[in-house]
Amino acid sequence: MRIAKAVLLATTILSTGISSAKADVNVMASIKPIHSLVSAVMEGVGKPSLIIEGAGSPHTYALKPSQAAELQDANLIFWVGHDLETFLEKPIEGLASDAVAITLSNAHGLTKIKFREGGAFDSHDHDDHDKHDDHDDHDDHDKHDDHDDHGHDGFDPHVWLDPANAKAIVHEIEEALVATDPANAATYEANADKMMGELDTLISEIDAELKSVKGKGYIVFHDAYQYFEGRFGVSAVGSITISPEILPGAKRVSELREKVKSLDATCVFAEPQFEPKLVKTITENTNARTGVLDPLGADLDSGPNMYFTLIRNMARSLKDCLSGKG
Q: Is 119 within a domain?
C-alpha cells in the first residue's frame, strides 16, 4: 500500500510539472541519527539544523550560544526526549517556547524496552554507584544528579537503534512536517514512503550479516544496544558502566576485569565518545578482543544516508570482533 502510494505521489508530481517549493519552516534535530531521518524526509525541500555535531554525546553536551539563538527561531524541533537529551529540556521550554517540539520516543508504533538490571548489568540505582565508585567519582555523580541518564520512565531511550523503530520515527517526522509545512506535503509523504522500503531492506541485510555471530558473548561500554540486539538476535552479556559520563574508579575497574574473565566474553566494545583506554585496561590479561560500537555516528558525515551507514557500521564492528577479525 505504501509503495503504491509513493508511486502515485511521484507520478502526480512529475505529470503536473510541480516542483517542491522551498520549505517555509525552520527545523532542528538533536542527534545525528535523528537528523539523518529528518533529512531524508525533507530531501528536495530543505535541510534541518543539527544540534550535536561531530563526536558530541547527548549525555554530556552543553548548548552553544549560537544554537540557543537558532532555537529561538525554530518552528520544529525533533529530539528523542528528556530521557536522552536532558540538556535540551529547559531551552525547549524557554528559548523555543513558540516551536513545536516532537518527542520521538513517544512516536506511535514505537517499541520501547525497559533497562536491564541485575547480574552482569548493574542496577540502575544511584546507591549502586555509591557502592562501586571511588570518592573521586562521587563529585561527578553529584553534578549529574539532575541528569537522570536512566530515564524518567525506566525505558532505554536509544530507540533509533532498531530500524523498525526508525520506521515509526520517520512516520512521526512526516506527520509533523506535513502539519507545519502543508505546501510540501506530497514530497514529505513520498520521501517517507521511500524510507519505509529502504529500512525494511536494511533489516533483512543486517539480519543476514549477523547470522554467523549470534550467541557469541560480548560486553558493551554502556547498555545502549538492546534495540539493535532484539531486532537482530545478538546479545551483550554485560556492560562496563550505567551512566557513560561517570567513569568507574580503581576498585570498580578491578571488578570489571574480573567480570570480563568470568563471563568469558569474546569482545569488549568501547565507544568513540568516551575514554577508550578504560576498555584496554579492563581487557588486560584476558582473552577478550576489543572493538568499537558507535550508537551516534561520531565520525560519520551528517545527512540522509548517515542512519544507514550507522547501522551497517555497528553490524560490521560486531561481526568483525566476534568472528576474530577485529
A: no
Q: Which amino acid is at 115?
A: F
Do 143 and 192 have their domain in common? Answer: no
Task: Give the range of the structural domain holding residue 257, as residue numbers without chain letter.
Answer: 126-157+209-322
Write 238-241 long-range contacts (CB < 8 A, 24+): 238/119, 238/120, 238/121, 238/263, 238/265, 239/120, 239/121, 239/122, 240/268, 240/278, 240/279, 240/282, 241/122
Domain boundary among 138, 170, 205: 205
CA gap 230, 163 in Å, rounded: 11
Say how many domains are in the chain: 2
Rounded to the nearest 10 degrees, the angle between the axes of helix 306-322 and helix 185-209 is 10
pLDDT of residue 15: 36
Do residues 27 and 131 share a domain? no
Give the global pTM. Answer: 0.83
Residue 292 three-state SS: strand
Residue whose C-alpha cell reads 529500512 in the numeric block: 199
Distance CA 308, CA 203 (A): 10
pLDDT in tens, 150-209: 444 689 999 999 999 999 999 999 999 999 999 999 999 999 999 999 999 999 999 999
Q: What is the pLDDT of residues 282-293, one digit of tens each?
A: 888 888 899 999
Is the CB of residue 222 less than 8 Å from the CB of residue 64? no
Using CA atoms, how far residue 253 sits from 154, 240, 247, 260, 280, in Å, is 26, 9, 9, 11, 11
Residues 6+ apart with CB under 8 A from 154: 114, 115, 124
Average pLDDT on 115-130 reads 54
In what helix (H) or strand (E) does residue 188 lie, and over which residues does it extend?
helix 185-209
Crossing angle of helices 2-16 and 185-209, in 10° steps, is 140
Domain of 172, CATH number, reads 3.40.50.1980
How far is it, in rounded angstroms, from Cα 309 to Cα 313?
Answer: 6
Same domain, 103 and 183: yes
